[in-house]
Design goal:
heterodimer, A: about 425 residues, alpha/beta, eight-stranded mixed sheet, B: about 160 residues, alpha+beta, about 40% helix, about 15% strand, binds pyridoxal-5'-phosphate
């Protein structure tokens, strides 16, 4: 049994893709994309849903910041402290602009996971923080609503919040086609918060945000949007979507790891008690007690990640220079090609929508007779980096009665020939395991 | 690193035709294990006669490596004492966690030597160990959750 040498050997196409993006030029900025893996196979990186690669511009910006301007931000009055603070705050405002917000609405966190935890812990802290925080307080009889397609990051913190407060967790189900089942749940006056993804990291499904927000508002519930998989891949305007909170991670949008964003409507951030406390988040400190700075500082205790914020600011510049609309169109066309190509391979079942309507570029599938791990191993031997497993969405996989899928996810630097290499690799995995 | 070095014929044979598959009674200890990174699962039962493993039965959902490793496990432990089985397991774990640097003990491992290639893929080590972890746990539960309460716990002997 040998692996056909030609499968997966296809190189990135030269020059512009049919979609109009000059992927050759883009790829030249991502050194890692020209390395080989395993046995001299050109890397085909189809795991940007887990983490994206970073362009030279982002790496250079981090280095330049550290070599010329590094200091603790929002502390000290020397020149470096001034420059570092300016760089940090300038990054915040550029990131805010990308999502239609302003600086004051944006809290830097470690990642999206921390952003969600920040909200859940602020909500549990509100129980003991005083009567003015009552609107954030949950208790028995109250409900938090999520969906069955959430990443664990937007599920487990809510389970924990409910456990701590005695509130009840409920969820919207998912249809066989991988769409949100809006009929599966009715909100009520008991619903205090609805948290949902902007794009499933497994199926690519984009739920109807407008309708979810409308229903939440109707019963006076807050909303939190997990925008991890949407912000990197197309235009997103958070105030227009009308959500109360949103989170996303820098490392999924060409930026550094260790930096993420919590967006909150100003009025809510101003009213919410802190999560982490300590230096930098205070207004006045006495031995008897302290008062807190206005947001976003109130939620940024301690010396924050600085070069990472600067790097993320430059990642945003990079995305803007390419154009979020063009990125979305490019990824849509790759997704279309992948869905069509995989449909031609017998025994492949896509988990989620099979058209690109309200759908982004995460394509998960199972292959009859070849376990996801084994398919992934064959793909890996051909140089294709895909994700296998439940992709931190175990309940969704259980919903479809499967333990694991193979997931390919796309970013602006992927090409049509890489999609073709994926399809060829899936054929090869069937051949290797003797499935016809 | 060739794919074939990992997917040895012996492994693929066990995957396609697993030995002792299915859950049987009587049994004296049972374990349920999952691999949290991929969601693969196994329920495994051991039956003992005194100190001797008389049957290992299982229901598993998983990749070729985890399925084949569990099938090979049953060949290695059925008919042997619990003590011998545990030392075989130790050799297997040592080989599998050795990053390809550990010379496998061929006498103890026989067919399981085929998994030596898996040791070079850290992400797959847990797959190869899933059944063994269930076996160890099931033995620890003898006398606690079996279909046959007669059998005393292993450490009581
Ligand atoms: C939809 C979604 N939500 C949340 C997360 C969590 O992101 P992070 O691990 O960066 O906090 C991820 C990524 O893993 C994701 O895809």
């Amino acid at each position: 049994m040998t692996v056909a040498p030609e499968a997966g050997r296809m190189l990135a196409s030269t020059g512009a893709e049919p979609t109009g993006l000059d992927t050759e030029k883009i790829r030249a900025d991502f050194a890692i994309l020209s390395r080989t893996v395993r046995e001299q196979r050109p890397l085909v990186y189809l795991d940007s849903g887990a983490t994206s690669q970073r362009p030279r511009q982002v790496l250079d910006a981090e280095r330049a910041f550290l070599e010329h301007h590094n200091a603790a931000v929002h502390r000290g009055a020397h020149q470096l402290a001034e420059e570092a603070t300016d760089a940090y705050e300038a990054a915040r405002s550029r990131i805010a602009e990308l999502v239609g917000a302003t600086s004051d609405d944006l809290v830097f966190t470690k990642n999206a996971t921390e952003g969600i935890n920040l909200v859940t812990y602020a909500m549990s802290n509100s129980a003991t923080a005083g009567p003015e925080f009552a609107r954030f307080t949950l208790g028995p009889g109250d409900e938090v609503v999520v969906t069955e397609m959430e990443h664990h990051a937007n599920l487990v913190p809510w389970q924990e919040l409910c456990r701590r407060t005695g509130a009840t967790l409920r969820w919207y189900g998912v249809t066989d086609q991988g769409r949100l089942d809006l009929d599966s749940l009715r909100l009520s006056e008991a619903t205090k918060l609805v948290a949902f993804t902007h794009q499933s990291n497994v199926m690519g499904t984009v739920p109807p945000v407008d309708e979810l927000v409308r229903r939440a508002r109707e019963v006076g519930a807050l909303t939190l949007l997990d925008a991890c998989q949407s912000v990197p891949h197309g235009p997103v305007n958070l105030p227009d979507l009308g959500v109360d909170f949103a989170v996303f991670s820098g490392h999924k949008m060409l930026g550094p790891s260790g930096i993420g964003v919590l967006y909150g409507r100003r009025e809510l951030l101003e009213a919410m008690p802190p999560f982490l406390t300590g230096g930098s988040m205070i207004e006045m400190v006495r031995m008897e007690g302290s008062s807190y700075a206005p947001p976003p500082q109130r939620f940024e205790a301690g010396v924050p990640m600085t070069s990472q914020a600067v790097g993320l600011g430059v990642a945003v510049d990079y995305l803007n220079a390419v154009g979020m609309d063009r990125i979305a169109a490019h990824e849509r066309s790759l997704t279309e090609r992948a869905l069509a190509g995989l449909a031609e391979v017998g025994g492949v079942h896509i988990i989620g929508p099979t058209d690109t309507e309200h759908r982004g570029g995460a394509v998960s599938f199972v292959v009859d007779g070849v376990h996801a791990h084994d398919a992934g191993q064959v793909l890996d031997s051909l140089g294709l980096a895909v994700r296998v497993g439940h992709h931190c969405a175990w309940p969704l996989h259980r919903r479809f009665g499967i333990a694991a899928t193979v997931r390919a996810s796309f970013a602006l630097y992927n090409t049509e020939s890489e999609v073709d290499a994926l399809v060829a690799g899936v054929h090869e995995s069937k051949r290797f395991f003797g499935v016809s | 690193m060739q794919l074939q070095q990992m997917y040895q014929e012996i492994i693929l044979d066990h995957y396609r035709n697993p030995h002792r598959q299915g859950l049987r009674e009587p049994f004296h200890g049972e374990s349920f294990q999952v691999n949290p990174t991929c969601g693969d699962e196994v329920t495994l039962r051991v039956a003992l006669d005194g100190d001797t493993v008389t049957d290992v039965s299982y229901d598993a959902m998983g990749c070729s490596i985890s399925q084949a490793a569990t099938s090979v496990l049953t060949d290695l432990v059925v008919g042997r004492t619990v003590g011998d089985s545990m030392s075989t397991m130790d050799s297997f774990v040592e080989m599998i966690q050795g990053r390809g640097q550990v010379e496998p003990d061929e006498d103890a491992l026989s067919d399981a030597v085929a998994f030596a290639g898996v040791a070079k893929y850290p992400a797959r080590v847990k797959c190869a160990l899933l059944g063994w972890m269930a076996f160890k746990d099931a033995v620890g539960r003898v006398g606690e959750n079996g279909s046959d309460a007669e059998q005393p716990p292993v450490e009581a002997r």
